[in-house]
Amino acid sequence: KLDFKCSRYHQCYSCLLQANSHDHPKGKKAKGKKVAPAPSVAKKHEAKKVVNPLFEKRPKNYGIGQDIQPKRDLTRFVKWPRYVRLQRQRSILYKRLKVPPAINQFTQALDRQTATQLFKLAHKYRPETKQEKKKRLLARAEQKAAGKGDTPTKRPPVLRAGVNTVTSLVESKKAQLVIIAHDVDPIELVVFLPALCRKMGVPYCIVKGKARLGRLVHRKTCTSVAFTQINPEDKGALAKLVEAIKTNYNDRYEEVRVNHVSIYILQICLKTNFPNNLNLFFRSVVTGEVASWAPNPQPASLSWRKQRPRSWQPSLVKMFGIKNLCPKITEFVYHLKLVLYKLLS
């Protein structure tokens, strides 16, 4: 047996050899194939590097309170500017919380093809710059000084800009088309405009973004722009744009009504007390009222990490208090078909 208590630690290997010597009796060799010895390989003699003994090795210690730390990527610990923090927090809040329909409609901007045609038409009706106005007034003053009389010129058809101006034009039904920027901050400045335009029967659209609208009217940014008067040669182009825009925005209110009808039918089929907060089941659509929004009493915690995607079925089970969900949904679809058949026939 191996003597673990051997005082000669450096000779413990000899103890192990003595223990293994009893496996084979003396005089008898273990059977096995002999392996040929490896051919001797000529070892290459590497020249030793000459090290100056005056140069001492001084390895750095990066422990706490020791040497200065090496340069690392410290992006995570940077104190970012306020506008960067705000836009990051805003994007996360829009993902985590239930967004009201009146605010969420600004995420659905006009498609690129229609927007290109719209801006091409709007470019013709840009208001005059300060230099052009100065030149016009100077020519008018020279004409007056020459004794030819001061006749005021007729105002050319141009775009009207600014939320107050556009609101008064919509209320008086003088606006032919209203263009709203999608990234106005604070959004409360223009959140009422789509509902007002729909109520007054004025076509409106939401485009990207406030800087592009600002370039139209020679400003840095602009919240909204309205067409009031237009030249006869451009009436056909404007009519086509208005038709496409009405389909995408003004007529979308009917879709919201259809969604609310389907919720009511779902409530009848499932025979449960449906919650008053409709946003728990249906996410916001293009149009809607702010008053109909009620926030989730237990919103998700604000986190920079990606959340695990949750299944929709357990959430519905929790909402309606039912376990066998699939038969209920099948029954709902059947009743929905019956109702639609009665409505269409």
TrEMBL record:
Residues 139-153 have a biased composition (Basic and acidic residues). Residues 25-34 have a biased composition (Basic residues). One of its GO terms (biological process) is ribosome biogenesis. The keyword Ribonucleoprotein applies. Residues 22-43, 129-158 are annotated as: Disordered. GO terms for molecular function: RNA binding. Keywords: Ribonucleoprotein, Ribosomal protein. Transmembrane segments: none annotated. Pfam families: Ribosomal_L7Ae. One of its GO terms (cellular component) is cytosolic large ribosomal subunit. The keyword Ribosomal protein applies. It comes from the Eukaryota. Component of the ribosome. This is 60S ribosomal protein L7a. The gene is RPL7A.
